[in-house]
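A further point concerns the way the authors explain their paired sequence and structure data. An entry of this sort, consisting of the sequence and the corresponding backbone structure tokens, reads as follows:
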Amino acid sequence: MIRHKRSLFIAGCFSLLGIYPAFSQQAELDTVKARRFDMGKMWTFENPPVEYLKETYQLTTDKAWFEKAQLAALRFSTYCSASFVSADGLVMTNHHCARESGTAVQKKDEDFSAHGFYATKLGDERKVPELFVDQLVRIEDITARVQDIEKQGADDYEKLTLRDQGLENIVKEYGEKPEWKGLEIQAVTLYSGGKFSLYGFRRYNDVRLVFMPELDLGFFGGDPDNFTYPRYNLDVSFFRVYDDAGKPLKTTHYFKFNPDGAKENEPVFVIGNPGTTGRLQTIEELEMERDYKLPYLIQVLENRKAVLEAYNEKAKSDSIANEVFSFENSVKSFSGQLKGMRDPYLMARKRAFENDFKTKVRNDAKLSAEYSIWDQISESVKVLRGAQHELMLFQTNPLFRGEMLTLAQQLVDYAAISKTNPQRAATLKEMLRAFTPKSMEIESGYLAAHLEEALSLLGPTDIYLRYALDEKSPDEAAEWMLSQSKLKDSTYVQKLIDGGETALEASEDPFIQLALIAQPRYMKSVFAARDAYMKLELLQGRLGRLIFDAYGTAIPPDATMSLRISDGVVKPVEYNGTKAPANTTYYGLYDRFLSHKGTYPWSLPEKWKNPPAELLREPVNFISTNDIVGGNSGSPLVNSKLEAVGLAFDGNMESLTGYFIFAPDTGNRTVSVHTGGIVAALKYIYKTKRLTEELLAR
């Protein structure tokens, strides 16, 4: 009796803590339901959510509303989003999108990272070489045509080859049509190949820098504050598009600046180009990423970051520091994805959707013939799981294996294909001849890390590790291999190129010997995976068509760096046992500065250290429930009147699961710069009268 009471007490404690014994947890997970928007809210402009917006926000939209939203939005080069925010071609995007472009036009003795940039006169705006922005002006559905082409293939390889060739031919064909002539034309894959659209972009190549803040403001909080909220970051920059006559572009499609921003619970819309999501993947595909790809990738990035940090303690290189930040950013991002995929509740929601989807297909006479698709996908995934270790470990990529080992394996590859594939061999030969090794300190660190990673995946008895280590530690083996190798000698490399397989087999170079072990295993995995990936690509397209047939436009396609509109509301979030407000203020920025004693990345330039009282109460950042991922950086947030109220630059930690599920109920939030905060900084700190007046013009 006492024991029974005690077990009830323990079970009660588990429940209070959110921890359940295995039998209870499984029962709970079996009752989990998918939510309406688990697959996201990245609506396409081909199928705008007119009725949904009316139902949800009592917002009546028409063709003109969506046309203005589409034409005022921009793609910033190939990697970010942006928008027109004045009638004279003024463009707004993030500082972190503009950083490379901006610093490219600084003159001798200028330092935009330290001091920022502002063109006080129109003539001072600086043209950025090779920078362009794209405006989406035409869309056409080409699905039926592409599917007809694909059907002509006799096998998977031929189907995909015909499809790719067909898309290229359609792009060329449309390039000759009068209404498409002069546009940048792109074939866009939607629903994993279930749908296809043709997009026509008007490209603007004369783009000039107008304003960018100092790095201390545009990157305030750095990596420690990255993917967090509350946040205090002036991540904004302005450019201007010029027309063919060299004058500021006149446009009627732009988002007027509203410095009041949006109020709590007010609907807001992100219009931009989200990069990549995997929400339409099956549970088995997600589990493969969870069990293989993501853990390995995170381990690689963490290990390479550690190598570069150690190296940069002496080198003090800005480019190395930027690379370290890139690794840190990626580690956080992928770790957030992995944490979500290891969350039983979130995966139960994904499984619930898949079960609902299967039921719809099985019970629909028109769709039921495709019910076996999940078994077919499962077979391809099993093949890929079996090939993952060799694919990951033996890929010819210096980041993963170091430059010397990559070179050695490319030499082995060249010898194998020189007779069968002359064209590829010629390209590879030029790369081999151009090889020049970089820092041996970094090389040693990368090689040692690779051997450590191979040890964890293959074990010490694998022949690859037995040869590489020979009872040495990974660090010792890396030093020994570098000391014994002749691959730093271009003359020796040329002899191996000329001598082919005979010269390689006779070589005693440790990198060559290790490559001779790895390359056959890698190629075996590549061939197995190639067929599986081709089959999976076709199956994913069929699955995408099924989703569209079963749910229609209620489920948007995965992100593909194509223009989308996402709805949400300004809303606080609970975190760490407390509640984050809907927006932060400059008071908070100064608290971070003072609390961290002004150390980087919470440092401030001199002009910011004695702020006017008018600035402090102004909002700086805010959060909303919009659906964004990487690529949305620089996207405008607009209200129902299509006025700019914010500038998206990040998501919080909870948003990182957005790769595979959209779950604002678990705290997923978009983090944006407040338009009021932008205007306040321009007005009180930077004194940018010309720019401020342009933004506030009515």
Observations:
- Residues 40 and 579 are 25 Å apart (CA to CA).
